[in-house]
Design a protein that fits this description.
By secondary structure, the chain is α+β, with helices and mostly antiparallel strands. Helix content is about 35%, strand content about 30%. The protein is built from one helix and seven strands; from the N terminus they run H-E-E-E-E-E-E-E. The strands form two sheets. It has a four-stranded antiparallel beta sheet with strand order 3-2-1-5, covered by helices on one side. The protein has a three-stranded antiparallel beta sheet with strand order 4-6-7, with helices on one face. Strand 1 and strand 2 form a beta hairpin. The longest helix is centred in the first third of the chain and has 55 residues. The chain starts with 7 loop residues before the first helix and ends in a 6-residue tail after the last strand. The mean pLDDT is about 90.
């Protein structure tokens, strides 16, 4: 036989192989997009932690007397507020994309949450805190900020 066309089996085989190949490429593309999204979220949450640390450090180091740390709830606070009563200044830390859980940070076993209206006197004590920042839309994306903020004190 001298046939110049394709048989039905050859066409079906070519379509099947093409479908499998396109499916594999599609899965690779989707996993790459998902990885990129998670990577971007992790980067954003680390930037939020750096911003919080900067604000808290500056507030602690420039306060002339005691200040309070307040929040709406703990865990999963939607804001953290630092209030210097003496100088009548305050800083509000909030971001609609994140919630905050605040622990004292003295040792690795601290699991008790910080109570609302905690008073810190930067002239007598350091601020030892562990803040867990959680993404509201992606709860698996979290960042833990453990820090001790000090102020130089004259003897």
């Amino acid at each position: 036989r001298n046939s110049k066309g394709l048989t039905l089996i050859e066409v079906l085989l070519a379509i099947s192989i093409s479908t499998i190949f396109v499916g594999i490429l599609w899965m690779i593309l989707l996993s790459g997009v998902n990885y990129s999204k998670i990577s971007t979220e992790k980067n954003s949450i680390q930037q939020e932690a750096n911003y919080i640390l900067k604000l808290m450090t500056k507030f602690h180091q420039t306060s002339s007397g005691p200040y309070r740390i307040t929040f709406d709830q703990n865990p999963h606070a939607t804001y953290i507020k630092l209030i210097d009563v003496k100088e009548k200044k305050e800083i509000l830390i909030t971001n609609e994309n994140y919630v905050y859980t605040i622990f004292p940070y003295h040792n690795l076993e601290d699991t008790e949450l910080i109570q609302n209206n905690l008073i810190i006197n930067p002239n007598k004590e350091d601020l030892s805190v562990n803040i867990i920042i959680e993404n509201v839309k992606e709860p698996k994306v979290t960042f833990e900020l453990k820090t001790i903020i000090s102020k130089l004190r004259g003897e």
